[in-house]
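Example record for the data management plan.
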Amino acid sequence: MTATIPTPAPRVDGSAAKISVREVSKVFPLKDEQFVALDRVSLEIEDNEFVTVVGPSGCGKSTLMNILAGLETPSGGSALVDGAEVQGPGPERGVIFQQYALFPWLTVRQNVEFGLSVGKVAARERRERADHFIRMVGLEQFADALPKMLSGGMKQRCAIARAYAVNPSILLMDEPFGALDALTRVTLQEQLLDTWSKEKRTVMFITHDVDEAVFLANRVVVMAAGPGRIYDIVEVDLPYPRTEDVRLSPEFAQLRNRVWTSVYHQTAGTHAATASSSTTTPTEK
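Corresponding structural encoding:
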């Protein structure tokens, strides 16, 4: 059974959420049919809120993020940032993918400065801003290193510093730690929260890892597949800053179990539907 998630009501004071998704649907045409990736998804994310999104493969998590990033257009409904409809990519939205997307011929500092140089920021200010965020993610000793000299975790920290440097008000993060080993992943989760606590941004973070989703977020959005809908939204009332001790607390365990149960029900339902159908659908975009 799918939980009913109401469409966010209009605000009495007329203010807009930082991110507002209103009845968004996305349909991808196939050879003989259509694949519904998202079906009337509605969600609001407040300014400086940290929201994680989990769900089975193919539930439309990445599609939703791509719509907010302006990389995809919705088939129906609307996506808004600061009350204005998303028309394409914009400087107020920084995007971080699982692939680091660093320029291999540029140093860490030059990679972090790159977006600023495109924006025609003066050289001195570029250097100061780049160095500020390089220090914040703990890479100051590697500022002049090329990406090939960095570990996977260090490359992702460089990508985070680069996204922060151009001063977006929103960070959209699609499985940024998914390819990393468990210990590095935990370390970067704590590093990301430390950076976020010092330089607040509105964050939408996609993950398959339930522990990661609960540890990072103010709220966890659980999505259902076939087609993609919001199944549950879990408030995470754990105080910040969050450290390893939080993961060992009974409150964390209770929240993790609730999110895991919702994800498991959706994953089990997806597998059952796949087993009973010969229809082939594309992997999540």
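Summary line stored alongside the record: Residues 274-285 have pLDDT under 50 and may be disordered.
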